[in-house]
Amino acid sequence: MGQGTTGIGDHGFLSDCHTAALTTPDGTVTWLCAPRFDGPAFLSGILDPDRGGEWTLEVQGARPADRAYVDETLVLETLWRGDGVEVAVRDLLAVRTPEGKEGLYREGVLVRLVECRSGTTSVRSRLRARPDFGRSEPRWESVDGGLREASGPLLSGAPGPGLTGDGDPEFLVELSEGDTAVFALDYLHGERRVDLGEGRALLRGTVDAWRAWSARTDYDGAGATHVRRSALTLRGLLHEESGALIAAPTTSLPEWPGGTRNWDYRYVWHRDAALVVLAFLRLGHEAEAGSYLSFLLRVCGRPKGWLPPVETVDEEPPPEEEVLDHLSGYGGARPVRTGNAAYSQHQLDVYGHILDAALSYEDATGSLPPDELARLATVVESARELWREPDEGMWEVRTDPRHWTSSKVYAWVCLDRAVQLAEMTGGEDEVPLEAWREEARAIRRDVLDHGYDPSTGSFVQSYGAANVDGSLLRIPLLGFLDGTDPRVLRTLERVEAELGEGGGLIRRYDPGETGDGIGTPEGAFLLCSFDMVSALVLAGRTDEARERFERLCGSGGELGLLAEEMTADGTQLGNFPQAFTHLALIEAAVNVDGAADREALHDWARTRSGNGGGTRRRRNGDDD
Known about the structure:
The protein is α+β, with helices and mostly antiparallel strands.
């Protein structure tokens, strides 16, 4: 199935917590990077079916009729039906959980099990590998029990593959009711030959591992089905070894049809930090929250004088941006990029995200080690030194830095959470606590003086600007002002009036008024759309919030996966699936479910820590 017929949101998502694959509704694998999320693509047909390669599957006399994940797992089952024929195809990136251990360990194998449930049929499956984003010609050689490609992967199965006249591997098999075939690609070691028995064992092990993980997800409130699928998606984006959460497993899926806003998101953005920690904690996955925070604090421990907003899963800078001119792009959207230049930007909000994450973790667990608390003090001191300077902002504009209102609010968050953390852990004598309190008050006064426009009664995108921005929706969510404050309410009104679209969608900003250095259209931002739900809860407009939440969740694909952006007609745009969209969905669901609370996710952490809300509610500099 080609790029013009499969919508971004119609893809399936497979993961073994080291790399990911995407599949179309007809079972074509159009995306696989090896050996990890940001590795070179072995299949990148989603970006160019001809040059990028794909792994197709056809069932004679049948068509794809239904697909769904097997229970609460990342094993995807596609049912093919025809006249007297039914075939089930189960696709998975195999994982296991060794006895007596926790975690999801990769097997390093993409497995495709094909089971004939009724009738008789022929199945053909062709692997058109195009290594390194199609920059290398595939070279297959026969080895005992399979075919090995020159870059390393080994293809095997029962029955085994052969080579077509054009040099691509192909499986051909006749199946009758009760028969099963297996096709497998060892992307990691290039040594594993998978027969039918092992294929079934890999399926059982993968289903059992994901079921066991999902069984620990503790949530049955509003939008539970969407929340639990979001949790699985986030776990699939969490790198098992490092604990890092990537933004998305893809690159260059466009933020507007045929547009140029095409970026590589296969890296770790620290703007996700607080929501990652809170979401995993709230859903019962303390180990994942802790491993992610440990990754984050290791990054903070490296002295730079500033904190880069993005890292790779092994704590290195992303590669320099490179344009792949030979790929036509999804739906013709070019350029196709790898690497990301955001690393060199200064984004002031990063400091607030990190301190908010640390405080939330300490709130809920009380287990931050003293050495990690000391690392956080260096983050706070950096924010004290830098907050008066302009920055590129959380949207990573490619024009001159400016004084973004949301950046200053997050600088306040950094100092506010630092004070609370010091008080909570008894570290008041080890840090300049009074200086931090005064800095928090100074930042707050600065935002109220320069980020607020008295003539319109609302906050604005940046100091001196007149337009609003979707990031302003987080002002009440961060506790900077109460959700019913008139300034907050008026900001919500303006965001809805100026950035709202049908179906509860909110754009992050107006590209023309913002002057982001790109200027082309983009879809509505799903992060901001779910943030509006949470903000409406805090504004006391619970019924409206719940209605918006249900509409947004209903606009996703049949598999419950969401991209970065969406058009008013429900077309998903941008890299997929997107971590911060699913994080914001979880936050909105918990807020809708706990509408009586001031902010449900943080209130949950306070209650669990035994603070009863006292410490977290003692805000710093509450003068208006």
